[in-house]
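Milestone M4 deliverable, item 7.
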Amino acid sequence: MERKNKSIISCLAVITIIIGIGMFLSKNTFFNEFSNNYLTSKSDNETSFAYNKNNKKTNNGESFDFGGFNGKWSLIQIDSNKNNEITVHSNTKITKGKLCIVALDPNYKIVGKIEAKDKESEISFIISTKGKYLIRIVGKNASGNFDVRISSTNNIDISYKDFM
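Output delivered:
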């Protein structure tokens, strides 16, 4: 009987450890600023900057200097017809923290992602359904210069969402 109790206690200890590890991993996966669940959520809540200056908007992109960026901001909206190829070219320079640039389809699914560093990068995607696509930035204690240009094979409508 004593051997059976030790086996039960050992099994319960193992199950408790597995549940604890699972909770730790799920917290880091589902609530992390750079998890797919966070990147694709519909709201742009809890966004803050220490500063945002030298903002320049053109017909095909946007650039600005920023510091202390935390949260997410869907700053560019692209309206396009189906079968159009969109290219997002980033020359963003990050001096501190971490910043990610994400392209989302009308259903908030990721169609492209750039981990912004100190090198030029680009993502291209084909518009599968007519609608509004978003360019979103997600940051954690990020500072630097945001610089993105958008090009396409056919006409697109680009609009900008101010931070405030």
